[in-house]
Specification:
Elements: H1 2-13, E1 22-52, E2 58-84, E3 87-93, E4 97-98, E5 103-104, E6 126-132, E7 135-140, E8 143-152
Antiparallel strand pairs: 1-2, 1-6, 2-3, 3-8, 4-5, 6-7, 7-8
Length: about 150
């Protein structure tokens, strides 16, 4: 019984190894238009004229006015090229759910490019990269973003 207890406590005490980041550099980025992004705003206003009778039934009319506007623009995606060791990677940021309903904003038409740690950085900026769970994570300072590998050389 003592042997079993000691082996279980060792297994529970084992910690996951810390990911090992590799040093690299941002080589550049490019924007590609892929489809469109649209948004709609609307408003409905009106009146209800109803009468409830003694038997509980209700009868009446509803008058409503609805107006809306839709605007569309091109969706542009940022593809980042980084060099880590002997390899060159082309990366696409993975969107994160935002807002109350967990909607995804992905394209720059939707305003998401700023969620990438590589957004706004100049070529030559040092980065760190680690591969976890089939995707890569890029770290710049204390910030980190997840990316999909689009191409690798």
């Amino acid at each position: 019984m003592a042997l079993l207890d000691s082996s279980c406590s060792t297994a529970w005490a084992a910690k996951k190894p810390k990911p090992i980041y590799q040093d690299g550099v941002l080589k550049g980025f490019r924007m590609e238009q892929q489809g469109t992004h649209c948004s709609t705003n609307g408003n409905t206003s009106g009146t209800v004229n109803a009468h409830t009778y003694d038997d509980g039934s209700t009868n009446g009319t509803v008058n409503a006015n609805t107006s809306s506007t839709t605007s569309c623009g091109p969706s542009a995606f940022a593809f980042y090229t980084v060099i880590v060791g002997e390899h060159t990677y082309v990366l696409l940021p993975i969107p994160k759910p935002i807002g109350v309903f967990g909607a995804y904003k992905y394209a720059f038409g939707g305003g998401v490019g700023k969620n990438s740690v590589l957004y706004g950085l100049l070529p030559g900026t040092p980065i760190q990269m680690v591969n976890k769970d089939g995707n890569v994570y890029i770290k710049v300072g204390n910030r980190e973003s997840e990316y999909t590998i689009v191409a690798m050389q």
